[in-house]
Structure to design on (371 residues):
């Protein structure tokens, strides 16, 4: 019985050696895949025990099986994690036909028959991000990995006869299956299908099987059942497609920044040394209240001012009275009190610059600011 190839162990160790940065092109979340390709069984030996009059002198004098290229099919479902790591469950089918030629090689050649194998595999793979060395990963992603599982094989009429001696193997077996995988995948989001990948990969597959029974015939028609080592090892080239569900790698335009709504302001003017509202002032305040309902207003600032005539202390108090008068009118016509902030700034922030102790109608005002 053959053992697990060191190639598989090396591939799985390499798979865990590093962790590349996450990428929009790496498989993330659920995916499915399938592949088809060519399979080539190693030209292997079928040793049989010697028997009287069989023409087999020693156990090393055995039939040699030669195989034509066959095919392999695989279907998988998996999940992609961060750093390019993927795990998947896979079903694999292989078929090969024995070479029907009967020429002699090192020893007797057996020709004809078929080998079929089915296996269920659990695989661990790693997509390698090459952008760290300047190769855009949006175009190609190498990957490596390996897997292990359980397989069933069927050998049907494998054998032939040479110089009066013959071999026929028609039996089935089962056992562990191992594989190492190296491949290249090509994201096809540029073709308008985000999440779709094409891939080409090489696989080495080793399947352990129990010793099977073959019918060996010798000269004169004598026959017996002889043990045959039926382990299979083969090279495979697959072309595959993989689809990652829920992916949209198309560039989504960033949402346009919403410009803040500019504060809207209204000016209410007052007579000299007065804080009473005129009819025109009430009209402007009502206009401000209506504007509040047409835009998202969270705060209304009511700022009172005076001109420079009079003392600064007196003007500060006068500006507060003017602001309070406007705020009271806003509340009276339905503006919630908690939205209003009324303040007086005296003779600061002049609308028209003037020297001290100067009467200026444009500076005797209250400014209503909707924010």
């Amino acid at each position: 019985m053959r053992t697990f190839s060191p190639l598989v162990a090396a591939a799985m160790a390499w798979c865990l050696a590093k962790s590349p940065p996450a990428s929009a092109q790496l498989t993330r979340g659920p995916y499915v895949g399938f592949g088809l390709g060519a399979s080539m069984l190693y030209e292997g030996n079928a040793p049989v025990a010697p028997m009287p009059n069989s023409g087999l002198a020693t156990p090393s004098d055995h039939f040699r099986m030669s195989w034509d290229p066959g095919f392999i099919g695989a279907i998988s479902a998996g999940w992609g994690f961060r750093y390019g790591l993927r795990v998947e469950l896979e079903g694999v089918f292989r078929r090969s036909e024995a070479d029907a030629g009967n020429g002699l090689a090192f020893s007797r050649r057996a020709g004809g028959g078929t080998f079929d194998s089915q296996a269920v595999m659990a695989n661990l793979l790693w997509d390698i991000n090459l952008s760290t060395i300047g190769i855009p990963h949006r175009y190609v992603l190498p990957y490596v990995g390996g897997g292990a599982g359980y397989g069933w094989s069927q050998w049907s009429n494998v054998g032939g006869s040479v110089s009066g001696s013959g071999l026929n193997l028609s039996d089935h077996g089962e056992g562990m299956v191992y594989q190492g995988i190296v491949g290249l995948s090509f994201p096809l989001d540029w073709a308008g299908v985000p999440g779709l990948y094409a891939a080409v990969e090489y696989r080495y597959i080793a399947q352990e099987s129990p010793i099977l029974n073959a019918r060996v015939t010798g000269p004169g028609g004598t026959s017996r059942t002889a043990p045959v080592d039926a382990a299979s090892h083969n090279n495979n080239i697959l072309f595959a497609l993989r689809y990652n569900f829920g992916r949209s790698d198309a560039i989504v335009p960033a949402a346009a920044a919403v410009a803040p709504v500019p504060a809207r302001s209204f000016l209410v003017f007052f007579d000299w040394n007065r804080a009473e509202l005129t009819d025109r002032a009430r009209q402007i305040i009502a206009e401000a209240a209506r504007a509040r309902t047409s835009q998202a207003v969270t705060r209304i600032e009511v700022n009172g001012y005076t001109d420079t005539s009079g003392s600064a202390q007196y003007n500060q108090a006068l500006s507060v009275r003017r602001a309070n008068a406007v705020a009271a009118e806003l509340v009276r016509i339905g503006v919630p009190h908690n939205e209003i902030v009324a303040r007086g700034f005296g003779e600061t922030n002049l609308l028209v610059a003037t020297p001290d102790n100067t009467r200026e109608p444009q500076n005797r005002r209250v400014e209503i600011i909707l924010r």
Notes: The radius of gyration is 44 Å.
